[in-house]
Amino acid sequence: EVSPVWTYQITVRRTAKGIVLFPEKKRPEKTKTYVKILGGTLWLSGTAFVCFHFIGRRNSEQRTKDGHTTNNRIEMYRIMPLKAISRAWGKFNQLELPVVLRRPLLGLYVWMFDCKVDEAMETELQNYKNLGEFFRRVLKPDIRLISQKEELTNPADGKILHFGEVTDGILEQVKGINYSVKHFLGPQTWNSNSKKSKRFAKQTDEEYFRGLKVKPGNKLYHCVVYLAPGDYHRFHSAAKWTINYRRHFPGELLSVSPGIARWIHGLFVLNERVAYMGNWEHGFFSYTAVGATNVGSIKIYCDQEVMTNVKHHPDTRYTPGVYFDKDFRENPIHVEKGEMFGEFNLGSTVVLIFEAPENFKFNVNNDQKVRMGEPMGTCKTS
User: Fold this and answer.
1) Tell me, what's the pLDDT at 192?
2) 54 has which bridge partners?
3) Please, is 335 exposed, middle or buried when counting C-beta atoms within 10 Å of its C-beta (0-12, 13-18, 19+)?
4) Which of 64, 136, 333, 339 has the fewest CB neighbours in a 10 Å radius?
């Protein structure tokens, strides 16, 4: 395969010596488009970084001088054009790379983020047409074995940010930083025939927690798995379960890296996310894919209708609480443990919130690197 980097345009000019042909070097349109989108993405990213760094730093100095704490720097971070940057990055990821550039560019990405190319079905970098194909690379058969002994397995390659029991409707995104199940999942319309919950706005976190109707002898648990840019970008089902409901929150696209998660309270509530609610053998089960900066899109294989990071969606910085639902209860979706569930265009986060018996025990630790299919937790029998 030959990918032309240059073409030639012949210009005919009349001179005193007669007609002369002038060949002119011309860059192809595809390469021009590639360079324009790359340049635009870098310009947006650079401008956002400069604004955040200098204005945010100035606000930080003012806080120290004034002697009290404000959220000015976080607000500066939130007003950066992260959704526009992420859409531009998503388009850039889908542009076909010239063959001569694939190995050096993808090789640089592999080196920077320590990607395990040897685990992929396709190990030749030049055979990936663009960055998007590389992000979504398929692994070799049996490179990830699904544990059959445990009820719950890791849904993705990544790092465990936090896990544990949900207490009174409050859970932790990282140690010491909390957020609310109520605001993360929204009104419990999947438990009723009502399209809107009139009591939702006035519900306390404890009342919302009771509304989940956890069975006697059970508890509510959660686990957060962070996918870094170098990780395998597809995510899988963590258990055998049934999907009854989908809720898409078109939120922000803040970074979900561990450092940002320790800095911004309620980060996962602010960000765009697609939450699926249903049931497994022990009761309530939810699986949420959370978007992040430069995640051009979240794709769910069993729900092709959902579209994320779309320009016409409302800006939730000014209109919070917006979401779009789909009810699957008449035709529920059955998902097997280890089944491919979806993909990110770049690293992001998966959040599991589920009901299980009191003797459920996690087999993971905070900050542990995990691989898809490995044991996450099981119900210990005495």
Assistant:
1) 73
2) none
3) buried
4) 64
CA 317 to CA 97: how far, in whole Å?
A: 35
DSSP 217: T
10 Å CB burial of residue 170 (0-12, 13-18, 19+) is: middle
- Which of 157, 231, 255, 282 is flagged as catalytic? 157
CB atoms within 10 A of CB 140: 12
Q: Which one of the listed residues 183, 222, 233, 236 is annotated catalytic?
A: 236
Tell me the torsion sign for CA atoms 302, 305, 306, 310.
positive
Q: Which of 45, 86, 286, 348 is catalytic?
A: 348
What pLDDT does 136 receive? 85
Report the C-alpha gap between 181 and 184 in whole angstroms: 5
Residue 236 designated active-site: yes
Asked about 162 being catalytic, the answer comes back as: no
In tens, the pLDDT along 158-198 reads: 999 999 999 889 888 777 788 899 999 999 998 876 555 55
Quick check: 134 and 112 in contact, CB under 8 A?
no
pTM over 0.90: no
pLDDT digits (tens, 9 = 90+) for 317-366: 666 678 999 999 999 999 999 999 999 877 789 999 999 999 999 999 99
